């Protein structure tokens, strides 16, 4: 019998501190940085974002999302035999956020590791978990996207600091006799490393280079609209499906203009586009599972629906996962 993987439950968690564009703009004005609600809404669709308290880490956010996903799946933490955390803002250089999160869940022994593919991290992590379940290496996986991007923002750079937020989303992925994950398609092109990066590192007890986020927004924008269409088409072809079979499109939540352009290219009505970028901003690897959980809990996404998840970001990385919920 063919072994597949299927989502058994979703969860998410946002830190309580919510900042509207107006509140952020007022805060930035005190630092001499000029921006406005109008500019942010018009260019990005973002209206608000959440920022974690200074002592809260990605694993803190991720463990709350994981608990919610376990509850939705009707499982205990002790049932889990694989933990993958997608993050670019881990708690420490090492060990992984996944190991720290495993301990916070009160379990031990199962495999736990991080995936670093920036805003494509969740689709990368889901693809790895699917492969491990299908080959029998795992049966019940927690796949989590968790970020505290507020820690790596340059609040003197208005072209980036208004875009990002903190949060976490999670799914329980379990072995199933029916699919589940239908197809996935992952890519990277390292020659674009400089268009979206945090170039600093820790060396000899010092920070070497700049530890804050740098982005060439227009270059990322141009690449994103092209690859999101090609990755979606590749997964549809692998699954022998067409645009018309997609019930819900859940792209990485970075910019409403990129998301709408992808929906149009896939000939999907905008009502089938799941949008949380307005309330969360860009939460990098957490954005897709956050959006997925919001749409599941609001009752939009129903069991049996066909979902197209799409990530794109630093690396440059991109990819898609097509699945039956
Ligand atoms: O998560 C990974 C994926 N990341 C993305 O997908 C991001 C992709 N890129 C984008 O979303 C867009 O390129 C941005 C939202 C980052 C920028 O939007 P844009 O329409 O490309 O704006 P722009 O960079 O062309 O800037 C237009 C103007 C500039 O002023 P001038 O040179 O025309 O006078 C900027 O200085 O807007 C100015 N500007 C701002 N003004 C007010 C840039 N940021 C701001 C700001 N507030 N926050």
List keywords for this structure.
325 residues; alpha+beta; Peroxisomal Thiolase, Chain A, domain 1; 2 domains; 5-stranded mixed sheet; 4-stranded mixed sheet; 15 strands; 33% helix; binds oxa(dethia)-CoA
What is the topology?
Blueprint: E1 4-13, E2 18-20, H1 21-29, H2 37-44, E3 48-50, H3 58-73, E4 82-86, H4 97-104, E5 111-115, H5 121-134, E6 140-148, H6 158-161, E7 166-176, E8 181-188, E9 196-197, E10 201-203, E11 206-208, E12 214-215, H7 217-238, E13 248-251, H8 256-265, H9 277-280, H10 287-297, E14 306-313, E15 317-324
Parallel strand pairs: 4-5, 4-6, 13-14
Antiparallel strand pairs: 1-7, 2-3, 6-7, 8-15, 9-12, 10-11, 14-15
Helix pairs in contact: 3-4, 7-8
The structure holds oxa(dethia)-CoA.
Shape: globular
CATH class of the largest domain: Alpha Beta
Can you count the beta strands? 15
Largest sheet: 5 strands, mixed
Task: Bin the strand percentage.
Answer: 25-35%
From the coordinates shown, what is the CATH architecture of the largest domain? 3-Layer(aba) Sandwich
**CATH homologous superfamily identity of the largest domain:** Thiolase/Chalcone synthase
* Distance, first to last CA: 20 Å
Low-confidence stretches: none
Structural class: alpha+beta
Could you state the order of secondary-structure elements as H and E? Answer: EEHHEHEHEHEHEEEEEEHEHHHEE
Average pLDDT over all residues: 98
Q: Which distinct ligands sit in these coordinates?
A: oxa(dethia)-CoA
Tell me roughly what share of residues is in helical segments: 25-40%
Please, how many domains? 2
- What is CATH's topology name of the largest domain? Peroxisomal Thiolase, Chain A, domain 1
Supply the number of helical segments: 10
